[in-house]
Amino acid sequence: MKKRILILSTGLFFSFSNVAQAKQNICVFDLLGKAGESYKLIEEWSLASKQWGGEVNLISYQDEAKVEQDFKSGQCDAFYMTSMRARAYNKFAGSIDAIGGIPSNDIAQKAISYVLDKRNEKRLINTMGKETFEVVGIGQIGSAYIFVRDRSINSIARAEGKKFAVLHYDYAQKIMVTRVGAVPVMSEISNFIKKFNQAEVEIVAAPAYAFKPLEIYKGLGTQGAMINFPVVNVTADLIIRKNKFPEGFGMQSRSWFVKQLPKSFAMVKRMEAEIPAKYRMNLSKEDHVKYQKILREGRIDLTKQGIYEPAMMTVLKKARCTVERTNFECSLSGE
C-alpha cells in the first residue's frame, strides 16, 4: 500500500513540475522580424520575466494577421502586436492610438506610463467569453506621419480624390481618410508601404520606424515629402491569457515596461532625426489647426461609436492641454 502511495505521490510531483515548467508561447510581431527593435525589446522582457515565474518561448512573425490567427487558435499564450489591432482585446489600452490623440513623444510617454500604472490594473484585465486577457506591457513604436508621392499635396484640399493606404482592420483610419476627401485603399501592415512605393496609392501614414527598412524613400522619389504633422501615435500591446501565467505576473511585467520607456523613446527620436531634412514639409498654420479640428471631430465621433474608450480620451486631452494650454480645444468640452 505504501509503495502505491509513493508511486502516486511521485507521479503527482512530476505532473505538477511539468505544469510549472510548461513554456508560454509569445507570438511577437515586428515588420523586421528578429532584427527589429520591437522583437529585441521582447527578448529583453523574456529574460526579465523569469524573475516573475515566466518561462517563455518567443515566436517571431512579420505578418501581423498571422499572429492574431494563431492567438485565436490557441497556438499563442500571449501576443505582442500593434495596439490598433489589439484594441479588440482591450479598448482602454488600445485607445492610446486614437487619431490625433497624442501629438508628441513627451505626451506619449506620459500616457503610456499612466495606462500601465497600478491604479489602472482592473481596466487592463478583460474577460471575453470564457477567456480572460490582461495587458502586461505597452511599447512605443512612434508617431505616424503622412508621406505623399507629390509634395504639391500640401493641404487638406489637395488630398481630395487621392488614394490613401489604410489598414483595413482599423475603422478609424478609413473614417478619417474619407473625412478629408481622400480615397481609402484597404491594406495590410505587411503591404501598405509597398503600395506606396509602387505608386498604387499616393498617400500613406507611417512612423519613422518604417522609413529606412521599408525604403519609403523609394516612394518619395524626388517629388515626395513627409508632412511634419503626427496623425497618430503607434504603440504595441503585450497581451496574455491570464490563466497561463503566474499570479502577479502582469503587475511586475507592466512595471518593467515603464522602466524601459526612456530607452524606447530615445530610439524613436533617433529614428525620426535620421529622416533627411529634404523630405520634411510643414503645414501652414491654418492647415495645422484644420487638421487638429478634423481629428478632434473624428475622435469624438469614433468614441460615440464605441471604437475608443471615453476615459482614455479624457486622459489624453488633459495631457495635451497641460503641454499646450492655449490650444483651441482646451476651452471646449466633448472629450
Layout: helices, strands, pairs:
Layout: H1 2-21, E1 24-29, H2 37-48, E2 56-61, H3 64-72, E3 78-82, H4 83-86, H5 91-94, H6 105-115, E4 125-128, E5 131-148, E6 163-167, H7 171-179, E7 183-187, H8 192-197, E8 203-207, H9 216-220, E9 225-241, H10 249-273, E10 280-281, H11 285-304, H12 310-323
Parallel strand pairs: 1-2, 1-3, 6-7, 9-10
Antiparallel strand pairs: 3-9, 4-5, 5-8, 5-9
Helix pairs in contact: 6-10, 7-11
Protein name: RND transporter
Signal peptide: 1-22
Keywords: Signal
Report on this structure.
With about 325 residues, this protein is of the alpha/beta class. The protein folds into two domains: about 25-140 and about 235-275, D-Maltodextrin-Binding Protein, domain 2 (3-Layer(aba) Sandwich); about 145-235 and about 285-330, D-Maltodextrin-Binding Protein, domain 2. Helices cover about 40% and strands about 20% of the residues. It contains twelve helices and ten strands. It has helices spanning about 1-20, 35-50, 65-70, 85, 90-95, 105-115, 170-180, 190-195, 215-220, 250-275, 285-305, 310-325; strands spanning about 25-30, 55-60, 80, 125-130, 130-150, 165, 185, 205, 225-240, 280. Helix 6 (about 105-115) packs antiparallel against helix 10 (about 250-275) and helix 7 (about 170-180) crosses helix 11. The termini are far apart.
Notable features of this structure?
12 helices, 335 residues, alpha/beta, eight-stranded mixed β-sheet, two-stranded parallel ribbon, disordered N terminus, D-Maltodextrin-Binding Protein, domain 2, single chain, globular
